[in-house]
Each structure stands twice: as structure tokens, then as C-alpha cells.
Design brief:
globular; 19 strands; SH3 type barrels; 3-stranded antiparallel beta sheet; 588 residues; 18 helices
């Protein structure tokens, strides 16, 4: 967690050239001059004026403002905090991001936003780094993918070393390699990271009322809380922490008995004010229960057209054949729904909060994106869309069916409708398909959210699939008889291999994209440098391999106070420079 946050601070500080956070500081440029590396990035002296060129991995002021303006994104409810509060668009700076904010930015936002500003080589390296952290933090780990990441991470860091200055690679950056070894030993990260403990410590901080004695305030409030928790066990008919419903809890079945049909057993809790309206005959036919088996046996051609015209009358006539054997749910379904339906602007289904596009217009969250798995031209496909209305169909016996009325994006056109790039799925929200088929069962829909794609621009949006809280992808495991052996681990690992798409984590090649020859941005003006912030040590013109060793400590020259005052300058000081030069000469 802390390693990911520090790497995120290094990346953001260097890209946006944030004072105190950037690893491409003045002393870092002087280190390059002493090492004789990247002459284009050396400090430039023009009389008494000192300046440095803008690196190819840095953004100018207009790009920084556009970068920060893009960060005013909307996430789904409960996914992340409002990152826009940490952004200053006018200054082009980001500050005050918490650990979880950096976690979200590193894994979800960074691969999307950098495509519109940086060179392809730089983007590819940062996207690979983001995929590395995203796979480590996934809820399901696959050993084959972890071994592939173990082979990829050295190449990723080699590419980053060709991009960023040496001062970028402090101890926290190098510790990212050890995270993979730790994951192979201790497995899932969710049971080991510090987010629950930091939230609990934040809870303790809110207990403080007497700032002169914070420990006493925390202890006293903790004792009171334990007493109230113990007493709440014996309280009835009032809301306590033991019977309090969750914020996004759905409602149980209102009927006396459990319905036999799954279509009537959807766990949906409508939100907002209900409005009644009458569906047209065309929409009513599309909203009925569908079937295809008999039509396929008769004639496999024009199934959908014949189904829409024949099914209602056929199903209604079948209910009178054996009325004693027809259950109530089948009878209610055959009678058809009431043409007057209820319309809602929001609902909670299976613990997930959905809002219509109109309702979330003035909200800070985005809960209208949906995805439904289906078929198109005989091939399985994911239908992405946006929710426009939530309809409640009412049947006999208080049976209800909830439908989502959506606008589906054109995912059938691989050039103008949908594209796949760098582990990202991008859809064109200006193109739609199946305009006459807007409905989907609420239980069939999953939630996604969309982010503006800066590479393609216009109406192109990046799709982000998410896994909601308390939802786990538990695979079915084959039971192995004792006669075949006592080794239980082999069956579980083989099952994980089946359900993992290894194509999402291919091996990283050393020459995926060519790196440009220019190391600085010649079309941008140089950045002025204040001579007062430069280290007092005069840089040498060249490094002598025979006399580079200096046994005298640099603490007396620089002072320990200067080292403790600025953590960033410590990695760029003269001591760090001479230690790196010592290692280089030993290797030579």
C-alpha cells in the first residue's frame, strides 16, 4: 500500500513537475552532468541565468491544466473518494491525495489519462507498471500469471530507467519487485494491507476531545463504545450495530412464499418517487418473457420476428390445457403484465446502486453505466450502454418484474463503435445499436463506469468493469478421490488456470515500441532555475575513474539538518552521486 503510494507520488510529481515532489529537480540534473549522461537534460548556463530544458516525460502548463481538469471524473457509489478535491486546475497541481486515492489513480486512471499527453514508449511503460499493481491487488490470483509478472517486472523497470532520471528510483521504487515475491509466499494482498488499520486509527482520532491528553480521550471513548456495544446485544426493537441494514441493501421477497420463477425473485429495491405510465403495444410485446426452443425446432429462420408475434397468444392458450398442473407464477406470467407500469429513477439490486442518466446529472457519482452479456451475429459479446429508465411490470398475485431501459452503444463495429487498446475497452457513445430493443432484466445487468478517452477524443469513452464489495468470483473445483492421491493443491491450481484469461497478461518484449532520440522537448521554453536552491557543491566537469573515491564523509560539508529537512534532496545529494559512481566503477 505505502509502496504503491510512494511510486504514485514519484510519477505524478515528475510528470506535473510539482515542487518538492518531482524527482527531476535541479540537483538531479546536476547528477546527470556529473555522470556524463543525457546531455540534453543538463543545466544550461547563460551568464548569471540558469535554466533547464523540459524533459520528454514532463508536461507543460497547458497540458498540466488539461490533465488536472480531466481528473474531475465521476466514479460509482462507494468506489473511491472525490479525487477532484485534491486538484488545482489553475495551477496544474495535485496535492493531498490519500493512500486509497493513489491506489485508484495508479490502477484505474493513469493508463487512461497519459495516452493524450506522453509519447507511446512512455505510455506503454507506465501502463505495464499499472497492470503490475492491478494484478497483484486482484481478488483472485493465478500462479501462472504471477510467474509471468515475475518475468515482466525487470523489463518494466529497465524501460522506466531509460525514461526517468536516476533520482526517480529511490528505495521505495525498488521495493515493488519484492511485492511479487511476498505475494507468492503470503498470497492475497487484501488480507495483509493497511487500509483497515488506517481506517480504525482514523476512528480513534475522532475520539479525541482533549488535545492535551489524546491517549486518555481515546481510551475513555473506547471503553464507552465497548459498553454500549455489549448492551446492544440485549436490546430489541431498536436499531443497533447488530441489526442495522447496510446502506445498499436490497429488499427481501414481499410475497408469503418464495416464487418458483427466477424472473419474479429479483432482489430489487426501488429508489425515488414512483411515476406511472402506460407502455405502448410495441414496447409491451418486447418486455414479455422470451422463449426460442419450439420456434427453433420448427424453423431456425426468423426466430425473433416469429417469436414476437406468436408467443403471447401461444402462451396464453397453453394455460387452459391443464389448469390443475399450472402453478401460480406460470399462470400470472401467462396472463401478462398490467399495461400501466411503474417508473423509477434509481434502484438497488444485489447490493449495487443504479441511477438513471438524468438522476445523476447533478451528482458526484456515476451509477448509470451497465453491461449485459449476450450474443450478436452468433458470437458472444458484451453490450455496453447507459440506463435511461427503470420499469416495474406488475403481474397477478403481487408478482413483479424489473426491467432496465437502456441505450446500447454500437459494439458490433470494431472500427467506429468499439476498440481495444492496452488492456482498455473504448466505446463510441455517439453510435447506438438495437434502438428497438432497449430492455434487459435487472438481474442480467452489471455496473460499469465510463471515462473520457483523451487519445481518441470526441465521444469515445473508456469502459471500466468493476467488482462490487462482498462479491467474489468463486470457481467450481473438481473433487479428487483419495485413491488418486492426497495432494489437494494440484486440483485447485488447475481450476484457476481454466478461468484465467492469460491473453490479458502477455510477456513484455524488450522492443515493443521504439524510443525517440530526443530526450527533451525542443518546442518548449526552458524552465528557470533559482541558483539559491542548487547544492553548494560545485559540480566537476568530468568524473575521473582513478580519483573518484572520497573517503571523507559528506555530513560535515552538507550538515545533517539539510538532509533531514528535505527527503527528496537526500537522494540527489553529492553523497548519493559519489556512491553511484563508486558502484559504476566497481562494475567496470
Amino acid at each position: 500500500m505505502h509502496i504503491e503510494k510512494n511510486i504514485c507520488d514519484n510519477v505524478l510529481g515528475t510528470l506535473l513537475n510539482i515542487d518538492g515532489k518531482t524527482k527531476d529537480s535541479t540537483n538531479a540534473r546536476r547528477d546527470l552532468a556529473n555522470l556524463g549522461l543525457r546531455k540534453e537534460l543538463h543545466l544550461q548556463h547563460d551568464g548569471n541565468r540558469i535554466s533547464m530544458s523540459l524533459g520528454f516525460y514532463m508536461l507543460n502548463l497547458n497540458e498540466r491544466r488539461k490533465f488536472c481538469a480531466w481528473l474531475s471524473v465521476k466514479f460509482q457509489d462507494g468506489f473511491a473518494s472525490n479525487i477532484a478535491r485534491c486538484v488545482s486546475v489553475s495551477d496544474g497541481k495535485i496535492k493531498g491525495m490519500k493512500s486509497h486515492d493513489c491506489h485508484i489513480f495508479m490502477q484505474e486512471l493513469l493508463p487512461v489519462v497519459i495516452g493524450g499527453f506522453l509519447w507511446p514508449y512512455v505510455c506503454q511503460a507506465l501502463i505495464n507498471l499499472s497492470s503490475y499493481f492491478k494484478e497483484l491487488c486482484s481478488r483472485t490470483l493465478d500462479l501462472s500469471v504471477l510467474h509471468q509478472l515475475q518475468a515482466n517486472i525487470p523489463i518494466i523497470f529497465c524501460k522506466l530507467e531509460m525514461i526517468f532520471p536516476p533520482a526517480f528510483f529511490d528505495i521505495m521504487v525498488h521495493l515493488a519487485i519484492d511485492l511479487l515475491e511476498e505475494t507468492l509466499l503470503a498470497r492475497l494482498v487484501q488480507y495483509r494491507w493497511m487500509y483497515p488499520f488506517k481506517r480504525y486509527l482514523r476512528k480513534f482520532k475522532r475520539y479525541v476531545r482533549n488535545r492535551a491528553c489524546p491517549e486518555g480521550s481515546i481510551a475513555e471513548a473506547y471503553v464507552h463504545l465497548e459498553c454500549l456495544t455489549f448492551c446492544s446485544i440485549y436490546l430489541r426493537d431498536i436499531e443497533t450495530r447488530y441489526n442495522r441494514e447496510e446502506r445498499n441493501s436490497d429488499v427481501a421477497n414481499e410475497l408469503g412464499n418464495e416464487p418458483c420463477l427466477s424472473v419474479f425473485s429479483q432482489k430489487v429495491r426501488p429508489l425515488g418517487t414512483v411515476s406511472s405510465k402506460k407502455l405502448s403495444d410495441t414496447l409491451m410485446r418486447k418486455a414479455r418473457w422470451e422463449h426460442h426452443n419450439i420456434l427453433k425446432e420448427e424453423d431456425p429462420h426468423n426466430i425473433n420476428r416469429r417469436h414476437r408475434s406468436q408467443f403471447p397468444s401461444w402462451f396464453k392458450s397453453r394455460r387452459a390445457i391443464r389448469p390443475s398442473e399450472v402453478i401460480n407464477d406460470i399462470y400470472a406470467l401467462a396472463c401478462g403484465p398490467d399495461p400501466w407500469v411503474a417508473s423509477y429513477a434509481g434502484c438497488i439490486m444485489n447490493g449495487v446502486r443504479f441511477h438513471t442518466k438524468e438522476r445523476e446529472r447533478h451528482r458526484r457519482t456515476q451509477n448509470s453505466g451497465v453491461v449485459v452479456y449476450g450474443e450478436h451475429n452468433g458470437s458472444p459479446i458484451d453490450f455496453y450502454g447507459v440506463l435511461h429508465d427503470i420499469i416495474e411490470l406488475r403481474y397477478m398475485g403481487r408478482c413483479k418484474v424489473y426491467l432496465f431501459s437502456c441505450a446500447w452503444y454500437d459494439v458490433g463495429d470494431s472500427r467506429r463503435g468499439i476498440r481495444v487498446r492496452d488492456h482498455l475497452t473504448i466505446v463510441n457513445t455517439a453510435r447506438h445499436m438495437y434502438k428497438d430493443e432497449p430492455f434487459a432484466l435487472a438481474c442480467q445487468a452489471l455496473q460499469v463506469f465510463y471515462l473520457t478517452d483523451l487519445t481518441l477524443g470526441g465521444s469515445w469513452q473508456v469502459v471500466h468493469k468493476i467488482t462490487n464489495r462482498n462479491v467474489y468470483n468463486i470457481h467450481l473445483m473438481t473433487i479428487v478421490d483419495d485413491e488418486n492421491g492426497d495432494d489437494d493443491s494440484s486440483g485447485g491450481e488447475a481450476e484457476d488456470d481454466v478461468h484465467t484469461d492469460l491473453h490479458n497478461y502477455p510477456p513484455i518484449l524488450e522492443s515493443e515500441s521504439a524510443m525517440g532520440n530526443l530526450l527533451n522537448r525542443v518546442d518548449e521554453e526552458n524552465l528557470p532555475v533559482d541558483p539559491a536552491i542548487i547544492s553548494r557543491r560545485v559540480p566537476s566537469e568530468s568524473v575521473d575513474n582513478d580519483s573518484f573515491i572520497d573517503d571523507d564523509p559528506l555530513d560535515d560539508e552538507l550538515g545533517m539538518d539539510d538532509i533531514n529537512d528535505d527527503d527528496n534532496s537526500s537522494s540527489e545529494s553529492g553523497q548519493h552521486l559519489y556512491e553511484e559512481t563508486d558502484v559504476l566503477n566497481m562494475l567496470i
